[in-house]
Every structure is written in structure tokens, then in C-alpha cells.
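Need residues for this backbone.
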């Protein structure tokens, strides 16, 4: 019975081929769907531009979207035809297509009209300036654009990137881009992630963030941005992470920063911020990481901040910002705190040893380089737990109990650089 069924199906197939009868229904299989001819030609030309003419896609990969796909190329069906939706170039994976040292950005790349994601990893080694033309072709389709580890990419970020109004993710990480950031970048109203870290951008940060209501991550770290932080940063109501570290930004923290009620990370280390700590920081009760180290914030005590309101803090680094006064007791209420950096300031007074030790999660404590006085009253168990993650040296008037120093069992865990009390 089974043999008769197979025979009937085979006979039907042969008849349809021999008679050319096209009235029989066709079953559309995504694996066998053809690719638009112009799309295929544009894809091969664009890829050849990056990996070299020696690569011949038609010979190596006759079906770039089906059974034998090209590594780094993903497709989808539109009107029963395959179109490229994702193109990733560079050695992201071991079998990815490696970019040629003499690559070229061919115009055929911009003919991929359904492209949603485009990324380049370690492709541009020799100096190259990206032309601003053609990016408008991706305005209605592109949702993710990434340039990662391309030291040869120099010049300004094309202002026409601001035309990519459907863009949700813009990652420009560790390239050679320089010059000022185009204000057109604030046209990207759908953006959720903007990472421009590790380039050579300079000048002021554009004061145009008001329309970026959906932005979750803003990372402008490791550049040469200068001037003041624009007040429109307070309009980024959805923001979760703000990293401006390692720049040349100066002036006061804008009061509007207190409007960022969803912020979990604020990293401003290694800048030139001054004017003291803003009381509005305590309004950001969602913060888990607050890093302000190495800024000339001016001589100000920490007592003006209601630290107890910031109960979500896990990391607090306010080292080397010119703080004076005593260590506020409010810090000892931060039960989730794992890292506390108070070093290299002008702090005075006693160390609330017992209350700091009572913090259940504390794993790193740095109070070195201040003018603290009195005895350290931490237990041996505390010192054993902390190890070299506790530092109290360079406090001329700070001492540790004599028995801690003299005891053979305590000596190997006692903090370095703290004299015995007399």
C-alpha cells in the first residue's frame, strides 16, 4: 500500500514536469524561496568590497539565505523573496568573513532596502572617512548600527546618521572618530541605546536630548568632551545608565539630574566637575552605582546629602573629589553597599568602625589618604574578609590598637600603613 502511494506521487511529479502543467498548486518553502536578483547582486558586491574580489559568493554560497548561508548574513521573506535584514562584517566569530586591509564601502551596500541591522567589527584598520551620503537610504529600515574596534575610522560621525529615525541602537565603540558630535543625533527619537565610548569626540555635548524619551543607555565615556553637562539630560526620563567618565566635562552638575528617577548607574569619574555634590543626587533613589571619583568638586562635606535615602546603592566611589568633614553616619544605613571609596579626600574625625563592619554586603572599603583620627576598631574577622580591599594608610593621626599590631595571630591581617596606638 505504501509502495503504491509513493509510486502515485512520483508519477504525478513527472507528469507535471513533462506536460508543463502550471495549474497545480505550489507549496512555498522558506528554505527554497528565491532571492531577488538585484538584492543578491547588491549583497555580493557589498561583501566583496569588504573582504576582497577574491571572494566569489555565487560559487561558494549559491543560496546566501537558505541552505548555505553566508556567515554574518541573515534574511527574511518579503513578497515571497529573500531580502537581507542583518549584515555583520569582521571576525566576530571564528568563521566570520574577515575584512580586507584594502576594503571599500561600495554604494551597493545601501541598496539593501530591508536591512535592519548593520555592524562592523575590527574592519577599518587603514584611515578612512565615511561619506555622509547614502545613509538616507536606510532611514525607514535600519534599527541597529554598530562600529566596534575600527581604529581606521576617522573624521566626524556623519551627520546624516540623524536621518535613521527608526534606529533603536547606535553603538560607536573604540574607533577613531573625532570632531564634534552632530546635533542631528538627537533626531533619533526611537533610540534606546547610544554608546559612543572610546573615540576622540570633542567639543560640547549637544543640548538637545529633550526628544529622546525612550533612551535607556547613554555612554559617552573615554572621549574628549568638554564644556558643561547640558540641562536637557534631565529630560531623559527613561534613562537607566549614564556614563560620562574619562572626559573633560566641567562646571556644576545640573539640578535637572535629579529628574532621572529610573537611573541605576551614574559614572562621572575623571572629569572636571566642580561646585560640590548636588543635593538632587539623593532624589535618584534607584541608583545602584554612583561613581564621582577624581573630580575637583571643591571642599564640601558629605553631611548635606541624605545618604539614607539611597538605599539601593551597591557601589559608591567619591574618592579624590575634595570632600571634607566627617564620614556621615548615613552611609552606614546602606545595607546593599559592596564598595565604598572615600580615599584621597580631606575627611576628618573618627571612623565609625563598628557600624561600617555591620554592613552585611561590604567587600571593599578605602579610607586612605585623609586626615582621619582615632582608633580603628574593626575586628580580625573583618580584616580577614576584606584582605587588600581595605586601605587606611596615609592618615597621620589614625592608629590601630596596640594588641592588633603586636599579636602574632593578628599581625598578618592588620592593615598596612596604620601605626599602633600609644
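Answer:
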Amino acid at each position: 500500500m505504501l509502495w503504491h502511494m509513493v509510486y502515485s506521487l512520483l508519477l504525478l511529479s513527472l507528469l507535471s514536469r513533462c506536460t508543463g502543467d502550471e495549474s497545480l498548486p505550489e507549496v512555498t518553502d522558506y528554505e527554497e524561496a528565491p532571492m531577488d536578483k538585484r538584492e543578491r547582486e547588491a549583497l555580493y558586491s557589498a561583501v566583496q568590497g569588504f573582504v576582497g574580489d577574491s571572494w566569489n559568493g555565487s560559487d561558494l554560497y549559491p543560496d546566501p539565505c537558505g541552505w548555505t548561508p553566508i556567515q554574518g548574513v541573515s534574511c527574511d521573506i518579503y513578497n515571497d523573496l529573500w531580502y537581507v535584514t542583518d549584515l555583520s562584517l569582521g571576525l566576530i566569530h571564528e568563521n566570520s568573513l574577515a575584512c580586507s586591509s584594502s576594503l571599500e564601502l561600495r554604494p551597493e551596500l545601501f541598496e539593501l532596502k530591508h536591512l535592519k541591522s548593520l555592524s562592523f567589527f575590527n574592519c577599518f584598520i587603514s584611515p578612512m572617512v565615511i561619506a555622509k551620503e547614502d545613509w538616507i537610504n536606510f532611514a525607514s529600515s535600519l534599527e541597529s548600527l554598530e562600529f566596534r574596534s575600527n581604529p581606521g575610522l576617522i573624521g566626524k560621525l556623519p551627520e546624516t546618521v540623524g536621518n535613521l529615525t527608526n534606529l533603536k541602537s547606535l553603538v560607536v565603540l573604540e574607533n577613531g572618530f573625532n570632531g564634534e558630535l552632530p546635533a542631528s543625533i538627537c533626531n533619533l527619537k526611537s533610540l534606546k541605546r547610544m554608546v559612543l565610548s572610546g573615540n576622540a569626540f570633542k567639543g560640547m555635548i549637544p543640548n538637545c536630548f529633550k526628544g529622546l524619551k525612550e533612551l535607556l543607555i547613554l555612554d559617552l565615556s573615554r572621549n574628549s568632551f568638554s564644556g558643561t553637562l547640558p540641562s536637557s539630560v534631565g529630560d531623559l526620563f527613561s534613562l537607566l545608565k549614564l556614563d560620562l567618565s574619562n572626559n573633560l566635562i566641567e562646571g556644576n552638575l545640573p539640578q535637572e539630574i535629579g529628574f532621572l528617577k529610573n537611573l541605576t548607574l551614574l559614572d562621572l569619574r575623571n572629569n572636571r566637575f566642580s561646585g560640590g555634590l548636588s543635593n538632587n543626587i539623593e532624589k535618584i533613589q534607584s541608583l545602584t552605582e554612583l561613581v564621582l571619583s577624581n573630580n575637583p568638586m571643591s571642599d564640601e562635606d558629605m553631611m548635606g546629602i541624605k545618604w539614607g535615602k539611597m538605599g539601593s546603592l551597591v557601589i559608591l566611589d567619591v574618592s579624590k573629589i575634595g570632600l571634607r568633614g566627617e564620614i556621615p553616619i548615613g552611609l552606614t544605613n546602606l545595607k546593599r553597599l559592596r564598595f565604598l571609596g572615600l580615599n584621597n579626600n580631606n575627611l576628618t574625625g573618627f571612623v565609625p568602625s563598628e557600624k561600617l563592619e555591620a554592613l552585611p554586603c561590604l567587600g571593599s572599603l578605602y579610607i586612605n589618604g585623609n586626615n582621619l583620627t582615632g582608633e580603628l576598631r574593626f575586628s580580625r574577622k573583618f580584616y580577614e574578609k576584606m584582605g587588600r580591599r581595605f586601605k587606611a594608610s596615609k592618615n597621620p593621626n589614625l592608629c590601630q590598637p596596640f594588641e592588633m599590631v603586636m599579636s602574632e595571630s593578628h599581625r598578618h591581617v592588620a592593615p598596612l600603613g596604620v601605626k599602633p596606638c600609644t
